[in-house]
Amino acid sequence: MSLTIVSTKGQVILPKSVRDQLRWGPGTRLVVEQTADGVLLKAKPLFPPARHEDVFGCLPSHKPPKTIEDMAAAIGDAVKVRHDRGRY
User: Fold this and answer.
1) Residue 49: is its pLDDT beyond 90?
2) What's the domain range around 72?
3) Distance of alpha carbon 78 from its chain centroid, rounded?
4) HSE toward the beta carbon, residue 43, CA cutoff 13 A
5) Strand partners, 42
6) Does the structure show a pLDDT above 90 at 7?
7) Where residue 85 falls among pLDDT bands split at 50, 70, 90?
8) Which of 27, 28, 32, 57 is deepest in the core (most CB within 10 A)?
9) Whole-number Cα distances in Å, 58 to 41, 55, 61
């Protein structure tokens, strides 16, 4: 357990061992959350969370799109292979 002091400007110095263990270098942005037990510090994610709907289909494809029949056949083939291996 380490001890630190809040400065007159409200700054807190995190012990080097803690910063090293968490890989928090200079300029690391932290999210501060108040909890029932005190304060929780977490590194701010580098990127905002993404939903599948936001990114699905964003990569270009040079192949023609599959038809519903092609997809159904591929699913049937995969089920057959798994069934033969005793998976279903």
Assistant:
1) no
2) 52-84
3) 30
4) 13
5) 31
6) yes
7) confident
8) 28
9) 34, 6, 9
Specify the 3-state DSSP secondary structure of 71. Answer: helix
Contact 24, 13 (CB under 8 A): no
Asked if residues 49 and 55 have their Cβ atoms less than 8 Å apart, the reply is: no
> Does residue 1 fall inside a structural domain?
no
> Count of domains in the chain?
1
DSSP 22-68: HT--TT--EEEEEETTEEEEEEPPSS----HHHHTT-S---SPPPPH
Asked whether residue 5 is assigned to any structural domain, the reply reads no
Under 8 Å between Cβ of 30 and 19: no
Q: Tell me whether residue 79 is in a domain.
A: yes
pLDDT at 17: 92
Residue 57 has pLDDT above 90, yes or no: no
Residues counted in the chain: 88
